[in-house]
Amino acid sequence: MAPWIAVCVQIAFGMFAGQMAGTWLKSFCLGPDGDRFVGGLGGVTATQLLDAVAPGIAGSAGPEFVEVATQLVASIAGGAFFAAFFGVLAGGADRQRAH
């Protein structure tokens, strides 16, 4: 797969996962655009980190299906994690300002 296509897929699935994490964690939501933005960053970051740390797991030595499946799982997990993490940080900051 071409590198730019892989990055677009990582961003798209990260954005999807970020939106879902924001929907499930209403009290820590960054808003629809914030959840998607942070999720997209998380999707790319997690996939690139996985590829750098464990290139064999990321599918570079296997068939293209394994590579794509691994990228999808990593980008979904990274997008959801980033959205939840930054949502908790933003929610905690809002609570401190309220008191």
Written account of the structure:
The chain has 99 residues and is an all-alpha fold. It has one domain. The chain has 3 helices and no strands. Helix 1 packs across helix 2, helix 1 (3-24) packs across helix 3 and helix 2 (32-53) packs across helix 3 (64-98). The radius of gyration is 15 Å and the shape is elongated. 38% of the residues are buried. The model has no long low-confidence stretch (mean pLDDT 84).
The domain count comes to: 1
The class by helix and strand makeup works out as mainly alpha
Sheet with the most strands, sense and barrel status: none
Report the radius of gyration as a whole number of Å: 15 Å
List the helices and strands and how they pair.
Elements: H1 3-24, H2 32-53, H3 64-98
